[in-house]
Structures are given as C-alpha cells and as structure tokens.
Amino acid sequence: MAITDIAAYAHLSKTDIEALGDELDAIRADIEASLGVRDAHYIRRTILFQRTLEVLARLIIATSRSRTGWLLGTAALAFAKSVENMEIGHNVTHGQWDWMNDPEIHSNTWEWDMVALSAQWRYSHNYRHHVFSNVVGVDDDLGFGVIRITRDQPWQPQHLMQPLRNLLLAVIFEWGIALHGVHSERDRLAPDGEKVWEARMALVGKIARQAAKDYVVTPALSRSRWRRALAANVSANLLRNLWAYLVIFCGHFPDGAEKFTPDALKDETPAHWYLRQMLGAANFKAGPLLAFSSGNLCYQIEHHLFPDLPSNRLAEIAVRVKALCAKYDLPYTSGSLARQYFLTLRTIHKLALPDRFLRATHHDAPETASEHKFSRATGVRTGGLKSALQSRARR
C-alpha cells in the first residue's frame, strides 16, 4: 500500500520534520530575497530566443529546397516549441515570474502554444497535482487517469492495454493534457452544468485556434509549399509531445517517487508537505543544455518543493536540498534520463498485470512502498530512511 504515516516511513521525528521545514523555508526566503534584474533578463532573453528560433525555423522550412534543410528547420521548430512549452509556458503559468509584475509574463495572462488551456491547466496542475502530489485518488496526475502506476489502484482488465495506452499518450501528450485539464474543471464546477459547458466550449475554442494556426494558417503562408510546412508542423508537434511526455514521466514515476494515501493528509503541516514533495518526486541528471531543454524539470524534487520559484534558480537550490537530504539521512532520488525512463517503463508494463503475477508485496515493491516496509516482520528500523533502504538492499 502507499504511505500513510510519512514520518514513520521517513524515519524522522516530529521535531526533525519541523526542523527540516524551517531549513527549506530559509532556502525559499534566500532565493526570494535575491530575485532581481538578472532573473528578469533571463526569462526575457529566453522568450526572445524562442521566438527568434521559431521564426528562423519556419523560414528555413519555407525556403529550403533540400531534405536536409527541411529536417534542420523541423528540428529547430520542435526545439522552439519544447522551450515554449516547458521553460516558458509551464514555468510562467506556475507564477514563477509574477514577482516581475510584467503583464505579458504573468501566470494569469500567458497562453501557451498547445491545445490545452492555461487557465484549466493551472487548476488541474498547480492545485490538484502540486498541492496533493502523489496522493492516490486525489492527485489526478498519478497515471493521468489512464495508466495504473501504483498497486493502490485496483487492477482492471483494461490495464492489460496500458503499454499501448502509454505509447498513445506519448504521441498525443498535448491533447492528453488538454482533456485532463477540462476533466478537472468538470469536477471543480459540478454540479453547475452551465459552467461545465462553458469550460468545454472554452477548450473547443482553444483547440480550433491552435489547429488553425498549426495546420492551416502557417502552412498557407508557404503558398505552393504548404504541404512541406504542414508536415513540418505535424512533426514538430509530435517531437514536442514525445519530449514533454518523457520529461514529465521521468520526474514522477520511476522507483523512489513514492505514493501516499489520503490519510497522509490528515493534520499535515507545511513541514510535512515539504517532506511529501521530497519523497514523491525524482530528478534526472542533466547538463545546462539538457536542463534548459527540459524546462529545468530535471530538478523535479526542487520544483515540487518550490513550484513558484524561477526555474533558472533550481540548480543552485538543488545543491542545498541535496545537502539537507544527507543531513537528515533521506534519499535524493536521481539517475540518468535513460535509467529513470527504464524504471518508469518497467512499472507501466508490470502493473498492467494482475497482482497475483507480481512477486513483491504491496508494502515493499519498487514502485509502491509504505511504512510497513520497515516493520519487524520485514526488516529492522535503524538510522534514517536512506540508511534503512541501503540496509535492506544489502539483504
């Protein structure tokens, strides 16, 4: 089963958890106090770079007559769309740049270049996901409603298809996010049928505008070469979807990204919330280019701790968070991008099967663990969580 008693699982006392919370509060305060011109220049340069790259990519696609030129232009367009989606759209909509008071670069005004509506995504993601991260039955992002990602989700025959569902979701990821957002709006607005209808129509309008832009207007600007431009747009959107899917799944579903029962929310303090974020997310190792390309979501742990702090500061925050993990003997879940995706795929394929075909227990599986993992029947609770996990691994 998922974790119910976070303190017991983490091997921390109430005093330890509150002290950890104080140290994380201090990190937030330090970063907020240091925000300034350098950070504002960063996001404005990023937006200028992305828009310039997109224009150049479209010019190459429209004017080049060679296959190499088309491939180069399409790759550049896909990269521009990925930067807009993750380093700009995702992070601006999180409110990371609201402190600038720039009416354009603000969470309430930014509309990203994909079929999902920013306003609907803000509720489903910023609230439902980030506030209740990895709480089974509460966090809608836990498998996105189509993939069984923990044994706490009862197996159904339809889960046999989830390896194929996973591939389909990767290909149409922006559409999955759009539907995910409007479904969360439906749950929030029900039983007001009129407002639910308005939310659906708002999404239909955004889809129509986005489809017209990508598949009608921009190809038409290439006149007689519209087929070439249309193929480039379709390909760039596909590549952007695959990349966004990969980054998101590797930050949420590999081994070590723990899940929690709704009981874990009872009497949850801000410090306990911090601890749940640390235990429920996973990083992947990245250099500056890979970090930028992923919207700095290679630092998923830090992003979940401080979702509204600017993404360009997550690398320096990560150094301090990793030190805190060492101090409190907590695991800092990280690995290469390839390893994290392998672990995610293993979970997706394994949990497609009924539980009777699985070997590990409900409390001690790589993808689903609970505080009972360290009961007297299964092991000895000594030291902190990291030491306890290492001790069990050696058995």
UniProtKB/TrEMBL annotation:
Domain Fatty acid desaturase: 69-334
CDD domains in alphabetical order: Delta6-FADS-like
Provenance organism: Mycolicibacterium holsaticum
GO biological process: lipid biosynthetic process
GO molecular function, one term: oxidoreductase activity, acting on paired donors, with oxidation of a pair of donors resulting in the reduction of molecular oxygen to two molecules of water
GO cellular component: membrane
Name the record gives this protein: Fatty acid desaturase
Family matches, as PANTHER family: DELTA(5) FATTY ACID DESATURASE C-RELATED (PTHR19353:SF19), FATTY ACID DESATURASE 2 (PTHR19353)
Domain of life assignment: Bacteria
InterPro entries, sorted: FA_desaturase_dom, Fatty_acid_desaturase
Pfam families linked to this entry: FA_desaturase
